[in-house]
Design a protein that fits this description.
The structure is a single chain. The protein is mainly beta. It has one domain: OB fold (Dihydrolipoamide Acetyltransferase, E2P) (Beta Barrel). The protein is about 15% helix and about 45% strand. It is built from 4 helices and 12 strands; from the N terminus they run H-E-E-E-E-E-E-H-E-E-E-E-E-E-H-H. Strands 1-9-2-3-12-11-10 form a 7-stranded mixed beta sheet. A hairpin with a 2-residue loop joins strand 5 and strand 6. The chain is globular and about 45 Å long. The relative contact order is 0.23.
């Protein structure tokens, strides 16, 4: 199994851009179904081009398959499908964001399929609102906050909550089997 994926240089695709003044934190912004989302840059290991993917039978629709990342089997999650939308259609800008999730002194590595990576942006803490409350029946626990950037909201994801620990363990066990 080979992934034929090459690392995308951060300097060419994710040059730091500062929005506003004040102390902020850096986030990787990406597009998914026309919406802009962001993940804390400290949780990003790398960004790779979408290459060949090995499909694993009997996986849920959220798991698109696995890639070989320098000898390690890494499950690739379709974030669009995870959010209950249609599966991501692979296009020219489609890439896989490799994230690391810490839990109980263990690091889990996952690939997240996105439509395209936009930039690294700094969002001042004063420009981040808490996740909105939609009522008890709608989950928002996976939203770390809503960042205001250039008059628009960017949904800042809490990657550790987008993929629950049990789910990650189950995905890894299935991928290795």
């Amino acid at each position: 199994m080979t992934a034929n994926s090459t690392a995308v240089a951060r300097s060419s695709h994710t040059a730091p851009i500062v929005h506003g003044a004040g102390s902020g934190h850096q986030y990787l912004a990406f597009t998914l179904n026309g919406e802009v989302f962001a993940i804390d840059i400290l949780q990003i290991r790398e960004i790779i081009e979408f290459g060949s993917l090995t499909e694993v039978p009997m996986m849920p629709p959220t798991v698109r398959g696995v890639i070989n990342l320098r000898g390690a089997v890494v499950p690739v999650i379709d974030l669009s499908a995870r959010f209950g939308r249609t599966c991501t259609e692979v296009g020219r800008r489609t890439c896989i964001v490799i994230v690391e999730i810490e839990h109980d002194d263990e690091t889990q590595t996952l690939g997240v399929l996105v439509d395209g990576v936009n930039e690294v942006m700094e969002i001042p803490a004063a420009e981040i609102e808490p996740a909105p409350a939609f009522g008890a029946r709608i989950r928002t626990d996976f939203i770390r906050g809503m960042g205001r950037v250039d008059g628009r909201f960017v949904i800042i994801l809490d990657v550790g909550k987008v993929f629950s620990v049990g789910e990650i363990a189950e995905i890894n066990a299935l991928a290795e089997a």
